[in-house]
Hints:
This protein is α+β, with helices and mostly antiparallel strands. The chain is 29% helix and 16% strand. It is built from 15 helices and 12 strands. It has helices spanning 36-46, 141-148, 159-168, 173-180, 227-236, 240-250, 266-271, 305-310, 329-345, 423-431, 434-448, 453-466, 468-477, 482-488, 493-499; strands at residues 23-25, 59-68, 86-95, 110-118, 121-128, 194-195, 200-203, 209-218, 256-265, 291-300, 323-324, 408-410. Strands 2, 3, 4, 5, 6, 7, 8, 9, 10 and 11 form a 10-stranded antiparallel beta sheet that branches. A hairpin with a 5-residue loop joins β7 (200-203) and β8 (209-218). The relative contact order is 0.15. The model has no long low-confidence stretch (mean pLDDT 93).
Amino acid sequence: MEDNLKKLTNEVGAPVPDNEHSLTAGPRGPVAIQDVWLLEKIAHFNREVIPERRMHAKGWGAYGKLTVTGDISQYTKAKVLQPGTTTDLFMRFSTVAGERGAADAERDIRGAAVKFYTEEGNWDLVGNNTPTFFIRDVHDFSDLNRAVKRDPRSGLRSAQNNWDFWTLLPEAFHQITIVMSDRGIPASFRHMHFYGEHTFSLYNSENQRVWCKFHFHTQQGIKNLTDEEAEYLSGHDRESHGRDLFEAIEKGNYPRWKMYIQTMTEEQAKNHYENPFDITKIWRHSEFPLIEVGILELNRNPENYFAEVEQSAFSPAHVVPGIGFSPDRFLQGRLFAYGDAQRYRLGVNHTLIPVNQAKAETNSYHRDGAMRVDGNHGGTIAYTPNSDGIWSAQPGVAEPPLALDGALYRYDPKDDPTDDNFRAGGELYRIMTEDKRQALLQNTASNIAPVTANIKYRHAVHCFLADPEYGERMTGALGLSFDKVRELATLSNQELIKATLKAEDFPL
């Protein structure tokens, strides 16, 4: 029967050998640019919708500043992160799955993107209000977004599509637990933490590297909404988050977040019990404590929503000396995807739009293109190398070399014996108070209710593998057989997927 299935090809009909795993240098190495099918997938996906953003379409923004109060100069030479430094910034918050007309108070993760106008150029930190994510390989990026968007046949949101995709990727389990918990619907942008999510790198004036994660903790306190509160609010004010942020700043009630980092040495990363570059994993605070950096404050509303919020553009590829990347295969794909999406959405010269324009002097060889509205560098030489010594490269700011190990291949992290997709979700469940466990069970049962039983069993098994009590109580909340859950829990991931493919095999 399998031979009769239609086979996947690329855009010109050639067969595609793998549609889920990026081509990497070793099992934990960076993604290779020669993964041409990956580039095609992302480039095509970025151009599918105009003019709104494909994801994070509904958003709100404000200006502010970062004031560095701590001293992390031993880790980074980035001027923006030196003690006593104050840097202007623009920040955009968003929901993720909804279109521009969606309600703010939906159960969804919240995007949080910050543009720091540093003296060394713009630094964009693009993250969410969760420290982890649903997927870890950028090959799944467009597929995740299609699963949570509208069904191509009905044009409706589909819980079936959403949960089918989530439960076929066990690495999504921790993020599912967070989104279905009480923190799944923040009361406002002001009352939530946000994170850079990915592993980045920092390097100091001696060119010594550490791996890094960025955290921002709200100083307004955590506040969340129940499903009932969110339903009422969505019916009365679809712009509840945006209104709260705008009015707070107008009144001088400036929201603040305390910025922290976690660091991990290269040696610690090599010996860590799980892949530290896997965005679906976390670095436990007991092992890698938070180090205070400073205070981020939002204190000025935009003058024009379209010009400053809708036209704001962020890309994790925009870093400054002292801050770098990591072999996180999802980050590696985002380095291309975000900039490419902005070039399509706003044009090749989107960095000349005032909200995106650097405060530092910019001297690139980029020329021409639609909406080039400045002097286009006049008659300055447009090529390099040149005999005039114009705009020569600055090798002194280069990242330190990164040693790579392993053959170039499409590695599946599930083949890594250290890969445990359920550890963090189980730990999260066990630290929840009873009222929060009840909320998690009720929210999940309500959200997954329209979905067929085979997919419900898949999720219940994942809950059981994370924590037996979590699995037993979720099984009861979903009206399933616990004996069946325990039986399915003995299977490997591939066996579980095969056993739960057909809805007709699991009548309720």
